[in-house]
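Per your request, structure below.
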């Protein structure tokens, strides 16, 4: 593995044969998460492929020339030509391997893969999920000198990291940017001593054995597990939604609203998330049309009043989407009036969907006691129906799901676990 600068790019990359190039930054959590994977893979593939790193801030002109706009960004070159898919953000080991494999013969790949040895590591506690609940549990456990590992398929922060502003978290007079609040939580827990394994593929979860397999070959064992896997946005089920996800349909206003400056947007939903995110989107968009299945908004009154007074807002009630399609650069949303059955096509520059969430429990749902909506039932200590398995945050059965309630759950579970282990 070697670090280069822009003056060496032509020689080392364009004339360098098979190359993987990492544009990284300092004080960059995703870059830190990638570093160990990059180094490990260099030991496997390094005889065939050059592993290079370049500091993005000091080589900005080259980064801009190549269209690199975020850190980290991985680029793959074969004989001077970029190949495969560029990887950015929370980069998974499996995605890197997929691109590296494109450069090598089947026989050589078999030799390399034969060198991958399964590994086993032991901890006191595994935390599945790095949102506020999981991060708080990790903080309390490491402060209690409990050997803890935090595992997540994404980067730390959970949904808070994609929330524009948090105005009701105690201790902050002014609203806090969601990404900053989650970043501070993550850094506090990491500095305390909790081990992080993030942006990984979770291959298997065995709650009975208290084992988690990540990236297909690494087994993690513990005495107890905390489930903090959170929720995922619901889909409408309308035709075309999956096909246009990320290509005109978004589930994150913080991530994508800025791309709709002076454009028209449709929002599906009318609850708290839809109303609050629509208000944020309206800072950029020239017009926002809310399509809601009920006859009026169902968000809290204060949020409703603010939105109803916004001149950029338009409302279509008693309606649901049936088809999402593309016409050039425009999104075409066909909606159906639930009372009359009449169908109408709405043309916009983009669609945002905010219609609630579902718990992320697919890998282990058959073994736990769940409520009628599929959320995990836990007791006053956050313990589930399985001994030594705890659940915290939005994934649990509860009346209210907020950052503060997730943090409280994480605190309770960690204190209960620490008392038992000590």
């Amino acid at each position: 593995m070697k670090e280069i600068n822009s003056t060496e790019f032509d020689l080392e990359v364009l004339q360098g044969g098979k190359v993987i190039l990492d544009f990284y930054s300092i004080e960059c959590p995703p870059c830190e998460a990638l570093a160990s994977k990059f180094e490990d893979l260099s030991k496997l593939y390094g005889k065939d492929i050059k592993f290079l790193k370049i500091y993005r801030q000091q080589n900005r002109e080259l980064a801009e020339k190549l269209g690199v706009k975020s850190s980290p960004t991985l680029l793959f070159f074969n004989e001077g030509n970029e190949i495969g898919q560029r990887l950015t953000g929370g980069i998974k080991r499996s995605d890197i391997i997929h691109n590296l494999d494109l450069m090598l013969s089947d026989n050589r790949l078999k030799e390399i893969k034969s060198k991958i040895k399964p590994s086993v590591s032991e901890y006191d506690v595994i935390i599945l999920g790095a949102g506020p609940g999981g991060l708080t549990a990790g903080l309390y456990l490491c402060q209690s000198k409990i050997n803890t590992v935090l595992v997540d398929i994404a980067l730390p922060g959970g949904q808070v990291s994609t929330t524009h502003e948090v105005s009701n978290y105690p201790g902050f007079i002014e609203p806090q940017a969601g990404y900053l609040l989650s970043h501070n939580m993550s850094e506090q827990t990491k500095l305390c001593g909790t081990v992080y394994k993030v942006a990984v593929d979770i291959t298997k979860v065995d709650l009975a054995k208290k084992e988690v397999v990540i990236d297909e070959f690494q087994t993690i064992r513990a005495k107890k597990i905390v489930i903090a896997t959170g929720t995922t946005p619901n889909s409408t089920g309308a035709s075309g939604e999956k096909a246009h996800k990320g290509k005109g349909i978004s589930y994150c206003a913080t991530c994508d609203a800025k791309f709709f400056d002076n454009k028209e947007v449709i929002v599906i939903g009318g609850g708290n998330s839809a109303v609050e995110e629509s208000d944020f989107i309206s800072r950029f968009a020239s017009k926002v049309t809310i399509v809601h299945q009920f006859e009026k908004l169902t968000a809290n009154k204060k949020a409703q009043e603010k939105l109803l007074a916004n001149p950029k807002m338009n409302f279509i009630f008693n309606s649901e989407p049936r088809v999402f399609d593309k016409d050039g650069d425009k999104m075409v949303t066909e909606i159906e009036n639930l009372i009359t059955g009449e169908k109408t096509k709405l043309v916009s520059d983009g669609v945002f969907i905010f219609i609630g969430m579902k718990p992320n429990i697919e890998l282990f749902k058959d073994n736990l006691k769940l409520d009628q909506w599929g959320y995990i039932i836990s007791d006053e200590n956050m313990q589930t129906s399985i001994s030594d398995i705890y659940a915290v945050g939005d994934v649990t059965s509860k009346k209210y799901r907020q950052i503060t309630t997730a943090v409280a759950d994480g605190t309770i579970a960690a204190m209960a676990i620490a008392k038992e282990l000590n």
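The mean pLDDT is 94.

Regards,
D.
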